[in-house]
Amino acid sequence: MDITVIGTGYVGLTVGVCLAETGNDVTCVDKDQDVVDQLTGGKVPFYEPGLDDLLERNVTEDRLEFTTELESAVTGAEIIYITVGTPPDDDGTADLSAVLKVAESIGSAMNEYKIVVNKSTVPVGTAQKVRNKIAEKADAQFDVVSNPEFLKEGNAVNDFMKPDRIVVGTKNEEVEETFEDLYEPFVRTTGNPILFMDNRSAEMVKYAANTMLASRVSLMNELANLSEKLSADIENVRKGIGYDHRIGTHFIFAGTGYGGSCFPKDVQALKNLGEKKDTDMKMAKAIHRVNEQQKEILAEKINSYFDGQLSDKKIAVWGLSFKPGTDDMRNAPSINLINNLLEQEAKVVAHDPIAIDTAKEELPEEVKFNEDQYQTLNDADALAVVTEWKKFRNPNFDKIKEFMSNPAVFDGRNIYDPAKLQKLGFYYEGIGRAV
Predict the structure, then answer these.
(1) Cβ-Cβ contacts under 8 Å for 136 (sequence gap 6 or more)
(2) Domains defined for the chain, CATH in brackets
(3) DSSP 148-201
(4) Residue 416 and residue 401: Cα distance in Å, rounded?
């Protein structure tokens, strides 16, 4: 099929590359010529494992191209994906200006029947707004499909190529057949479903899924904080409940809170959707509140350890991105921690395997960065582990002690054994751990 993807950010590029990988001819549109040139040259402008190899192969084999010319890309396509951003306004409401502007441009360029797919995360009812915008300009027939993405940063290629499910919002049977053909290669070996439903239900699925997952994170963090006060160990609690098949093991790790673009934005957006319909989304509000409080907990532990005397203390930070496998710093708990430490006049030296360049744009200039995880610890009074990159899981603890002036470890992701570190002579605090 001839497919156009408008927007080459995290979602759009993954969609375009993966659809090209299954044999479709894909044109990706971006308004920035520098981005287009970079992608045409086979370089992904952000970190996502496996995406660069697929990009290079499909560009080389002429199934994937990039352009700034939206009109020609729309004219030559059977299916057009909208994948532009929907950032939150000040009150948390999703900003649809980019989506609606693209819809208007599609309508102006439309020369014959097209299927327009809304892949951006949008409030319920957006499909109708997109339909209205296109109709204002279009001289041809078209259908609007809601097709939410469920891509985890750091695992996006695998999530797209082997999805748990695919949700398609349309009531047109011919459109259903088209999407059965388009997505069949991705579910053929797994047997996972392609779920067809109305637009509004498909739009709601995205917010419901992310809020449900975010609720598990916030609940586990509340349980961790209580466990700590009761001298229980949240890791034992996690194992004890994780084997209940109704709960499972996913998203029940205690830590410093969730970050990224999806959970914070979508929980807030769902809360605001409720307010517009006179429905008090108490759980959504609580999930957000608990998470914001949890982002402060590591700084509170460090501050308490030093009796509030952090001036000139050197704190090493391992992990800056909001989770491993990405360089994304949006809403990262490391930002809260580092800003809090700087306010207490501490000195901060940070290391991350991938996200240092991104972090330099997000963090104050007082923060020092080091490309070597052990050199980061030189003369440090404490180490804070914020992101659970694999390279941090089993480090050389003897080497850590040699570098640090004071062997205190604050484990924001519970990746270390408290008893082991104490035996090695470290002061250790995790999140909800019995020590």
Answers:
(1) 104, 107
(2) 2-196 (3.40.50.720), 206-293 (1.10.1040.10), 295-429 (3.40.50.720)
(3) ---PPTTSHHHHHHS-S-EEEE---HHHHHHHHHHHHHHHTTT---EEEE-HHH
(4) 15
* Cα 270 from Cα 123, distance rounded (Å): 8
What is the distance between the alpha carbons of residues 338 and 353, in angstroms, rounded to a whole number?
17
What's the one-letter identity of residue 400? I
Question: Which position among 262, 290, 386, 431 bears the catalytic label?
Answer: 262
Cross-strand bridge partners of residue 409: 383, 428
Q: DSSP secondary-structure letter at 42?
A: T
pLDDT 10s digits, 4-58: 999 999 999 999 999 999 999 999 999 999 999 999 999 999 999 999 999 999 9
Task: Give the pTM.
Answer: 0.90
Cα separation, 261 vs 332, whole angstroms:
9
In degrees, rounded to 5, the angle at the alpha carbon of residue 381 between the alpha carbons of residues 376 and 385 is 55
CA neighbor of 409 nearest in space, from 378, 369, 368, 380: 380
How many other β-carbons are positioned within 10 Å of the β-carbon of residue 221? 25
Is 28 one of the catalytic residues? Answer: no
